[in-house]
Amino acid sequence: MTKIETEWQNAEQERQEDFIQHEPPEVEFVFYNQVQQGDVASVEKNLKSGQYRHIAMKTRLSTDLVQNFRYHCIISLAMVTRFCIEGGMPGEQAYRMSDFYIHKVDEATTIDLVEELHDAACMDYAKRMQQIKNKPVCSKPVTLCLNYIYAHMHEKITTEDLAEEVHLHPSYLSRLFREQMGCTLHDYILDQKIQTAKQMLQFSERSYAEIANLLAFSSQSHFIQVFSKKVGVTPKQFRESEYRSTLMRGDTPKM
Description:
- The protein has 14 helices and no strands.
- By secondary structure, it is mainly alpha-helical.
């Protein structure tokens, strides 16, 4: 018997003696399904119940309590990510969200902060899934387009690029996309770029020219023009507004 096998046998004997058992998988799957279905109210209620902390405290994956919470959080986010992809979220978007929150969890130094990040991530996934569920079911070509757009946000994306990606004629793809998404491909791409720009304005110190370049706008002025039209305020006004909101919440400014 190898050393690791011996250690496993000893650990198993100890677990048999302390009578601690894992929660039935159905308990966690109910929660993952709530997130997948975009049931924001149920997800919020579940999180407020403290069930995540209860499970993490009951099942120790590390002798270090903070590290223990990190492990449980990462496992939970991995499951939520896969449930959301199965539920229709573009894979690249789901994985990037997971990467972001896991990096934040890895930096967290207290149990409370890990729990806050876990809850924020689950609510973020649930709200995005709610938006997805409120839209009509998309065909495979359109779903592939959504994933491609998210993965290539920092490039210039044309209808011809997408048509080649999904092996359809550009005019047919344009019509199919509009029927299923309720907007043109061009408008959808711009909307996604502007959403990304809002996050950059809120959480980074990048200049307007840098953001315009990163999101493949033809120029800074073009970016400002599109942003103002889509959001109703200029990038400068948006950034200043978010800065004031941050101060009022008492958070550390991210600018």
